[in-house]
Design a protein that fits this description.
The chain is mainly α and 249 residues long. It is built from 10 helices and no strands. Helix 4 crosses helix 5 and helix 4 runs antiparallel to helix 6. The protein starts with a helix and ends in a 6-residue tail after the last helix.
Length: 249
Amino acid sequence: MLNVLFTGVLFVPLETIFPKRADQPLFRTEWREDLFYYLVSSMAVQLITWLAFMPARTLFAATSWTDFRAWVAGLPFLIQVVAIMFLTDLVQYWVHRAFHRIPFLWRFHAVHHSAKAMDWIAGARMHFLEILALRGTTVFPMMLLGFHQNAVGAYIFMVYLWSTFVHANIGWKLKWMEPWLVTPRFHHWHHGIEKEAIDVNFSIHFPWLDKVFGTHHMPDDRWPEGYGIGGHPVPTGYWKQLLYPFRKK
């Protein structure tokens, strides 16, 4: 609940003062559902992370990586956070791409892409099993590699805040940042409903990964005209969306 209040107090004024879409109301369609997602996903991430620490410690004791993990844990705090960002982004790039390319996985990720408006709570719309998959392939391996709990915690807070930012209805021109870090315009193109926006911009932190792997798309000074999935096949409502991936086509 505190996370929701914190991000709401931070981003609602920014979206009001610097909106990308000035005609988009604060309480737009489906805002209640996405606020519920925000509460659920926030609690889920905290619970999954907390539950992961104990088995990670058990695996620390059961493996022979003691010296390597001690070296990783002894790195300067900032170096650890940057290393976690790079490693998790490299993994998430391919996990994210798989969720787009494999039909069964896409049905889970389609829930996230079903949002027809982009703002600070839109990024929270994510199927619970996708949250498990992402955290299981990022946070848990980082702890297994030996990164300090404080560095992992700082990364989780940072990615939580940055994810809110890149989904937000903020029209800032950040050309100086675009080559190096994911910005709202970069990620909005990932959610664009246009044909040119299909399967592009998979990176979470570093857009140059998309350049390396051939999926980068940033038209000069343009934003998508709309958001969502062509035909809008995903039903509205949290519980219907929770069951959507398991329904027959």
